[in-house]
Every structure is written in structure tokens, then in C-alpha cells.
From TrEMBL:
Gene3D superfamilies, per the entry: Thaumatin (2.60.110.10)
PANTHER family assigned to the protein according to its UniProt record, in alphabetical order: OS03G0233200 PROTEIN
Keyword Signal: yes
This protein's name: Thaumatin-like protein
UniProt keyword annotations, A-Z: Disulfide bond, Membrane, Signal, Transmembrane, Transmembrane helix
Signal peptide (from-to): 1-36
Pfam families, per the entry: Thaumatin (PF00314)
Cystine crosslinks: C46-C254, C94-C104, C109-C115, C161-C244, C166-C227, C174-C190, C194-C203, C204-C214
InterPro entries, A to Z: Osmotin/thaumatin-like_sf, Thaumatin
Transmembrane spans: 278-297
Length: 299
């Protein structure tokens, strides 16, 4: 965790000299140390604890592939050097013992807290990434079903870096035949039609195994209405697959796609604003607040 230190009183005079210089360097475009590490910020805006999973994950990326995240808590992960291709999703209703063994109501990767390279059990809302050059590919997929709203917001990238994801909560509108229910009858997830009925038509296979022969169904249209920038079925590419160059990513569970969220890395605050003014405004406000604090202390 990054710590903020308040300067001792004997440094006030030096601060009066340093702060104008810092502001001058900031606005003059003085070069800063480049940090090429790709950053994933995972945010829990849900009302309950979730257990994000990262696959493939490692001890250096994703805490071995799984961890707990409390409401309003976030974690920053640095992607492996040389690119990464994989999935991030949230597990719900989990209970793990001290050895990291347990169960989850949705999204489980077996019985382990740390998924490593294991996939999640459907239904689960998936954030999918391929970090590459010159462009990344990313999407949110409901092809394997839905368990939580999730949005993927690129920051620091170049190109058409749109927000991918799902605003709606399909648990509230899930057709009864697709609903995954917990004890007491509460719907905890919405299964895909392929998972429930296992037919060629719903699974886009056999004679339906192509974009020209596998159109959206009534079920996938309902998913699409709730989540317009997420995959609702296998060939839903035009409005669901996005590209961006050299971006960092903020993955937010249970948040509106249009709501701004921020991540602090590379020694600056970066927010999910499509313009470049977001980081500049944030830094300006931070600097002005620091100037006011120093002047107030020195009075």
C-alpha cells in the first residue's frame, strides 16, 4: 500500500520552494519515468464479499489465482511481462477454511481458493483479455451465463478504448428455466441456454456452428438487452469485442459502466475518463490541496 507522509514543521520553508517547482515541472511537461508494467485494478462495488479469480494466475499475478475482496475494496495487480491472455471473474457465496479449501455458490474453480490455471464453473460473468502488440483484445462474456454485473474500463490506452461490460442484473429478470437458485429460493445466477438445454442451436455447434447459421435466440436477446456491450452468445462479436493499445484496465463488479472509477498507479491517479484531461485534473486538484495544506500549517 502506498503511504502518504506529512512533512515535519522544520521542512515548511523548503516546501514553499519545492511546491512551485513541482507545479512548474508538472505543467511544463517534464519527462517522467516510464513504467511499462500493465496494471489491472479489480474493484468490488457489490454489497457483499466476492472472491475474484484470475486464470492463469500465479503468486506474482493474482495471488495464485484467487482471493477475497470486501465491499468497496480494490486490489492492483501487475500483469506478467511479455503479455497475458486469460480470464477474470468473481465467485460468490464462498466459504474457505484456513488451508484455502471450500465451496462457492457460483464461479467455483473446484474447491480451491487459488484457481491457478483452472476455469470457473458456469454460470459466471467473464472478463476476458489478450494483451498483445499492437493492440489488446478484451470483452465481457455471458456465453457461460451470468452471476454478477461487471465492467472493463481501459485507462492510459490509445485507440477506440470503449467500456465493455454489463450494467443490468440478470438475476432479477432471469427466466425461471435458466435460474440457479440457492437455499430459500433466491436466484444467485442466470445460466446460459446452452448450459441448460445443451442443443446445437443454443450452443452454436453442428449445423449451427457458424456466424451465418447461429443467430441470436430469445434467451440471448434478453441477455443483450440487459448487457448491451457484453457477449450474449458465441457470435456476438460486432458489439462485444473491443481493442485498445497499451492500456491498463479497471475491472469493476456491480458498477454502472458509465460511472467513473479511479486507480492509483505509476505514481499518479488515473480515472476511467475517455479524455486525457481526467489524470491532469486529478493531479491538479491534488497539488492545489497540498499547497493549501502547507500554507495553512505554516501560518
Amino acid at each position: 500500500m502506498k503511504k502518504i507522509t506529512i512533512f515535519p514543521s522544520r521542512s515548511r520553508c523548503a516546501l514553499r520552494l519545492m511546491l512551485p517547482l513541482a507545479l512548474l515541472c508538472f505543467f511544463s511537461g517534464a519527462p517522467r519515468r516510464a513504467d511499462s508494467a500493465r496494471v489491472f485494478t479489480i474493484v468490488n462495488m457489490c454489497e457483499t464479499v466476492i472472491w475474484p479469480a484470475v486464470t492463469p494466475g500465479s503468486d506474482s499475478f493474482g495471488f495464485g489465482g484467487g482471493f477475497a475482496l470486501r465491499p468497496r475494496q480494490s486490489v492492483v495487480l501487475r500483469a506478467p511481462a511479455g503479455g497475458w491472455s486469460g480470464r477474470i471473474w468473481a465467485r460468490t457465496g464462498c466459504a474457505f477454511d484456513a488451508s484455502g479449501n471450500g465451496t462457492c455458490a457460483t464461479g467455483a474453480c473446484g474447491t480451491a481458493l487459488k484457481c491457478g490455471g483452472a476455469s470457473g464453473e458456469p454460470p459466471a460473468s467473464l472478463a476476458e483479455f489478450t494483451l498483445a502488440s499492437p493492440s489488446d483484445f478484451y470483452d465481457v462474456s455471458l456465453v457461460d451465463g451470468f452471476n454478477l454485473p461487471v465492467a472493463v474500463r481501459p485507462v492510459n490506452g490509445r485507440g477506440n478504448c470503449s467500456v465493455a461490460g454489463c450494467d443490468g442484473d440478470l438475476r432479477r429478470t432471469c427466466p425461471p428455466e435458466l435460474a440457479r437458485k440457492a437455499a430459500g429460493g433466491r436466484t444467485v445466477a442466470c445460466r446460459s441456454a446452452c448450459d441448460v438445454f445443451d442443443t446445437d442451436q443454443y450452443c452454436c455447434r453442428g449445423k449451427f456452428g457458424g456466424p451465418g447459421t447461429c443467430p441470436p435466440t430469445a434467451y440471448s436477446k434478453q441477455f443483450k438487452a440487459a448487457c448491451p456491450t457484453a457477449y450474449s452468445y458465441a457470435y456476438d462479436d460486432p458489439s462485444s469485442l473491443f481493442t485498445c493499445s497499451n492500456a491498463d484496465y479497471i475491472i469493476t463488479f456491480c458498477s454502472d459502466r458509465k460511472k467513473q472509477v479511479c486507480s492509483y498507479h505509476n505514481n499518479r491517479l488515473v480515472c476511467s475518463d475517455s479524455s486525457r484531461s481526467g489524470p491532469i485534473i486529478s493531479m491538479l486538484l491534488l497539488m492545489l490541496a497540498l499547497v493549501f495544506l502547507v500554507l495553512h500549517i505554516s501560518v
